[in-house]
Design goal:
The complex is a heterodimer of chains A (about 120) and B (about 240).
Chain A: H1 12-37, H2 44-51, H3 53-67, H4 78-94, H5 97-115
Chain B: H1 2-17, H2 21-37, H3 42-51, H4 55-66, H5 71-81, H6 84-92, H7 101-109, H8 113-126, H9 131-159, H10 172-184, H11 188-203, H12 211-238
Helix pairs in contact in B: 1-9, 2-3, 2-4, 2-9, 3-9, 4-5, 6-8, 8-9, 11-12
The chains are: A mainly alpha (about 120), B mainly alpha (about 240).
Chain lengths: ~120, ~240
C-alpha cells in the first residue's frame, strides 16, 4: 500500500504510483473542458488568473534552483546567475526557446572556461 | 476528395510540428538525464514520458521526489505546473465541440503546449473546417513530436550517466525552465507576475513540502490578474467606455 502522506525515499512501486497518479491527473486537467465541462464560458476572473499560471509557477519553481543550486550545496554561484540571466533575456528578446537554451548553456561554458 | 483533404490536414499538422523537434528532443534528453540522477531507472523515465507527456510537470515531480516529499505533495506540485492546461482545454473546447468523445480523449492525452498553440492559431485563422480535419491536424502534430519526446528521454536516460559533470548538465534543468519563461513575458503584468512569484518563492524556500512553490505561484497569478484588471479598467475609462 502506498503511503500518501508520509515522507520517504521513492523506489520501484512508489515511483510507479507517482507516474500513474500524475498521468491520470494530467489527463483529467487536459480533458476537463474538452470532454467533461463542455465549452461553457468560464467566469472572467478565473480566466484572468489562469492566464498567469505559466509565468507564475515556472519562475517560482526555477528561482530557488538558480540562486541556491543543490550541486554547490546551496551556495550561490555567480556564473550560474549570469547564465540564467542570459537564458531569460534571450528567450524574452527572440521568443525562441531553443536559442535561449543554447545561449544559456553557452554562457555557462564560456564563463567556466574563463573564470573556472 | 474527403480522403485527400484529410490527408492534407494531417500533413499540415506534421509540418507545423516539425520545427519544435529542436526543442522537444533536448528537453526530453534533459528529463532522461535528470530522472536517472534522481535515482530512477530507465523504465521509470520512459514511463513518465509516455504516460504523462508534460516535461515541466515531470521535472517538478522529480525535484519533489528527490526531496522525499510526501506523495500528495509530489502530485500536487506537478499538477500545479499543469494548471495552465485547464486554460488550453477551455480555449479549444468551442472549436472541438462536435468531436466524438474518443477523439476528444486522444486530443486531451496529447494536449501539450505546442499542440495547443498550433491548433488554436489554425482554428481561429482558418475558420470553418470539419472536426475530423481538425482532429487529423492534431494527430499530425503529435505523430511528428511525440516519438522525439520519447526518443529524447531514452537518449538522456541511457547516455546521461556517462556525460562528465564538467558539462554542467545539472544546470540544463533550470535553463529549460527559464527558456519557457522568456517567450511567455508578453506584457507588463506577465513580467511583474513572474518577478513576484520568483521573489516569494526565494523568501519561502525553507517551508516544508514545497509549500513555498504553491504560495508563490498563487501569489504570482493573483498579481498578474489584478494588474490586468486595473489595466482593463484604465483602458475602459480612457476610451470613455463603461467597464
Amino acid at each position: 500500500m502506498i503511503d500518501f502522506f508520509g515522507s520517504g525515499a521513492y523506489d520501484g512501486p512508489r515511483v510507479w504510483a507517482v507516474i500513474v497518479a500524475l498521468g491520470i491527473g494530467t489527463f483529467l486537467v487536459r480533458f476537463s473542458f474538452l470532454g467533461i465541462v463542455g465549452d461553457r464560458q468560464l467566469p472572467a476572473w478565473v480566466l484572468r488568473h489562469l492566464r498567469y499560471t505559466a509565468v507564475a509557477v515556472i519562475p517560482a519553481l526555477v528561482a530557488p534552483l538558480v540562486f541556491f543550486p543543490a550541486q554547490t550545496g546551496g551556495q550561490t554561484d555567480p556564473i550560474r546567475l549570469v547564465a540564467a540571466a542570459a537564458t531569460l533575456l534571450t528567450g524574452w528578446w527572440t521568443k525562441n526557446m531553443l536559442l535561449s537554451i543554447i545561449c544559456g548553456m553557452g554562457t555557462l561554458y564560456l564563463l567556466r572556461a574563463v573564470f573556472g | 476528395m474527403a480522403f485527400t483533404t484529410t490527408k492534407s490536414a494531417f500533413w499540415e499538422g506534421f509540418r507545423a510540428g516539425a520545427p519544435f523537434l529542436l526543442v522537444v528532443t533536448p528537453f526530453g534528453i534533459v528529463f532522461g538525464v535528470a530522472a536517472l540522477d534522481a535515482g530512477l531507472n530507465l523504465a521509470h523515465a520512459m514511463g513518465f514520458s509516455v504516460v504523462v507527456i508534460a516535461g515541466a510537470a515531470q521535472l517538478t515531480a522529480l525535484s519533489t521526489m528527490v526531496d522525499q516529499s510526501p506523495f500528495v505533495i509530489v502530485i500536487g506540485a506537478a499538477l500545479l505546473v499543469n494548471l495552465r492546461m485547464l486554460m488550453y482545454s477551455a480555449s479549444l473546447a468551442p472549436h472541438l465541440r462536435h468531436m466524438p468523445t474518443w477523439q476528444k480523449a486522444v486530443t486531451a492525452f496529447f494536449l501539450t503546449d505546442q499542440v495547443f498553440a498550433l491548433s488554436l492559431q489554425r482554428f481561429e485563422t482558418l475558420g470553418d473546417e470539419s472536426v475530423w480535419r481538425r482532429f487529423m491536424f492534431i494527430v499530425g502534430i503529435t505523430t511528428i513530436m511525440a516519438p522525439f519526446w520519447y526518443l529524447g528521454t531514452l537518449i538522456g536516460a541511457v547516455v546521461g550517466q556517462s556525460i562528465p559533470p564538467e558539462f554542467g548538465l545539472d544546470f540544463a534543468v533550470p535553463v529549460c525552465f527559464l527558456s519557457l519563461i522568456g517567450p511567455a513575458l508578453r506584457t507588463g503584468p506577465h513580467a511583474v507576475a513572474a518577478l513576484a512569484a520568483a521573489i516569494i518563492a526565494l523568501l519561502l524556500r525553507d517551508l516544508p513540502w514545497n509549500l513555498g512553490l504553491a504560495v508563490a505561484s498563487l501569489a504570482g497569478m493573483i498579481v498578474g490578474a489584478e494588474l490586468q484588471r486595473q489595466a482593463e479598467r484604465r483602458a475602459a475609462a480612457g476610451t470613455g467606455g463603461v467597464a
